[in-house]
Amino acid sequence: MSDFPYADRFPVNRVLPERGRPRHEIIAELAQMAHEEDQAWEGGKVSGTMYCGDHEHYAFLTEAFAEFAHVNALQRDLCPSQTKFEGEIIAMVLDLMHADAITDTTPAGLVTSGGTGSILHAMLAYREYAARHRGIAPAAGRVPNVVKPETAHPAFDKACHLFGIENRTVPVDPGTTLVDPAVVAAVIDDDTIAVVASAGNYPYGTIDPITDLGALALDRGVGLHVDGCLGGFILPFGEELGYGIPPFDFRVPGVTSISADTHKYGYAFKGSSVVVFRDKALRNSQYFHQVGWSGGKYMSPGMDGSRSGGLLAATWASMVHLGREGYRRYAADIFATAAAMMDIVRGHDELRIMGNPSFCFSFTSDAFDIYHVADFMKPRGWRFNGQQYPNAIHMAVTRPQTQPGLVEAFATDLADAVAHAREQQAQGRFAHSAALYGGAIGGLTSDIEAVIEMIMDGMLDTQQSLPPAVS
User: Fold this and answer.
1) C-alpha 436: how far from its chain's center?
2) Residues 6+ positions from 189 with CB-CB distance below 8 Å
3) Tens digit of pLDDT for each residue in 24-48?
4) What's the pTM value of the predicted model, to 2 decimals?
5) Which of 230, 233, 284, 290 fits 265 for a cystine, CB–CB 3.0-4.6 Å?
6) Mind listing the domains of the chain with CATH numbers?
7) Handedness of CA 352, 212, 249, 217 (dihedral sign)
8) Rounded-to-integer distance, Cα 194 and Cα 192, Å
9) What percent of the chain has pLDDT over 70?
10) C-beta atoms surrounding 355 within 10 Å
């Protein structure tokens, strides 16, 4: 499928049209694009991306969204419903993260625009809290630092870049894919404001040793943020189902904040996540106040200003509709499917699972470039996410993979792909796929590389239209 399949089929708007088009014509165009693009994932061969995949559920969320799509969540006096939705979303996530184990502080949270938003808010909170209570600030000749495993999401790197925090990234054990607390301890100093752990990490789906890291954080007097953006809405139910998920939430002393994406396994619309804090004083530290502005006293609990009330309503509706029973039922299907798929991978001597994952797994090969497998399976509809160092491909199992026949199709296609990879390696051929976060590992690489080269060579006006951003 071309990255620009519509240029010859629908009008291209290079300027704002003088006269608008009829509504029915616009809706028909959108419906056609949506129908064609849905076909790419409805078969269940796409890793992650579409965590729910249930059109009836999407229709239900659309109804909830539509009731408040025009509402600005900033205007709480006009729309007190937004206080209800946001407050209850936070309360339900705190319950899921066992905030009842907290006895000495008052827990709190924020609803954000996504996993990156939750991580950014957490890191900003740690920076501001450390400046206020520990004197760690450039003005005092001290630069705050955060210690994170290499497997932690790049949003932490982004946060350090944006907020002037020193980024101390440490390696993980190549066998377990987990960070060693002793390695973390060795780089913590008096200016460390937080340590990061993942439950589970994006590349491999594995869970860092959070109990040990919590003890370390307490001993050294630093925060511990657990990134549960990927696993926050499925790991708790895996634990309830008996899958042996280690504690990663507020039951662990030392855990001071957790991010969890409602728009992943929470089955809400894209654009919603939650970050919760053990102590509301930590959350409140990143509040912004400008009381001397001529437009009035400006106070903001987060980095966003105006927000559509539709997302809050739809997120709340998803959580209240599914309840624990619904999430548990879907989690059971996903964990079982992931286990079956991993068994298929382990059935090939040339393939190796990275670490000890659960619902999201990555595999590599010591016999050939694993991207030969991705190359072969792509024409059969499979869209994996790619890792590097070493090259690996992962499958974040979601509800679309739990439909009948998918595990059997995976077994057949993977067997053929392994034979193909073996042959390609023997002939000394290079694979075409590559590790590219947020895009098909074999789909956009050449286009993006060409654009980057043209920009660097000064051949392309960067104000012109570019291919879609990969993020």
Assistant:
1) 15
2) 145
3) 999 999 999 999 999 999 999 999 9
4) 0.91
5) 233
6) 81-317 (3.40.640.10), 335-448 (3.90.1150.10)
7) negative
8) 6
9) 91
10) 21
Alpha carbon distance 227, 358 (integer Å):
16
Contact 249, 205 (CB under 8 A): no
CA distance 406 to 400: 9
* CA–CA separation, 148 and 153 (whole Å): 9
Spell out the SS3 assignment of the chain: CCCCCCCCCCCCCCCCCCCCCCHHHHHHHHHHHHHHHHHHHHCCCECCCCCCCCHHHHHHHHHHHHHHCCCECCCCCCCCHHHHHHHHHHHHHHHHCCHHHCCCCCCEEEEECCHHHHHHHHHHHHHHHHHHHCCCCHHHCCCCEEEEECCCCHHHHHHHHHHCCEEEEECCCCCCCCCCHHHHHHHCCCCEEEEEEECCCCCCCCCCCHHHHHHHHHHHCCEEEEEECCCCCCHHHHHHCCCCCCCCCCCCCCCCEEEECCCCCCCCCCCCEEEEECCHHHHHCCCEEECCCCCCCEEECCCCCCCEHHHHHHHHHHHHHHHHHHHHHHHHHHHHHHHHHHHHHHCCCCEEECCCCCCEEEEEECCCCCHHHHHHHHHHCCECEEECCCCEEEEECCHHHHCCCHHHHHHHHHHHHHHHHHHHHHCCCCCCCCCCCCCCCCCCHHHHHHHHHHHHCCCCCCCCCCCCCCC
Report whether 246 contacts 228 (CB < 8 A). Answer: no
**Distance between CA 145 and CA 164 in Å, rounded?**
9
Q: Specify whether the CB–CB gap between 187 and 147 falls below 8 A.
A: yes
Is the per-residue pLDDT at 55 higher than 80? yes
Share of the chain above pLDDT 90, in %: 85
pLDDT tens per residue across span 280-321: 999 999 999 999 999 999 888 889 988 999 999 999 999 999
55 burial level (CB within 10 Å; 0-12, 13-18, 19+): exposed
Confidence of residue 435 (pLDDT cuts 50, 70, 90): low
The answer to whether 141 touches 147, Cβ cutoff 8 Å, is no
Query: Which has the closest alpha carbon to 226: 241, 237, 214?
Result: 214
pLDDT at position 459: 43
Sign of CA dihedral 127, 129, 131, 135: negative
- How far, in Å, CA of 185 to CA of 10, rounded? 57
Calculate the CA dihedral of residues 389, 395, 397, 401 and round it to 10 degrees.
Answer: 180
Mean pLDDT over all residues of the chain? 92
